Amino acid sequence: SDLTGMSREDQSRELLSRLEEVLFASGSDLSQLVKLNVFAADAESVSALRQALATQLPETARPAVTYAIGQ
Question: How many Cβ atoms sit within 10 Å of the Cβ of residue 57?
Fold first, then answer.
């Protein structure tokens, strides 16, 4: 589904939910994340995603995250 029209915070939560679904379907989960590469349109999007990661990832999951910001 389309994420346009959603707030950055809602987009971030939705993306993590989708990632969790894909991981679950392959027999894994968010606690197994080791590395994330994130391509964001702006710094505000990165901030929203960082907040979502902090609240949605299990306490034991702290993957390395690379952020690329640009148009």
Answer: 17
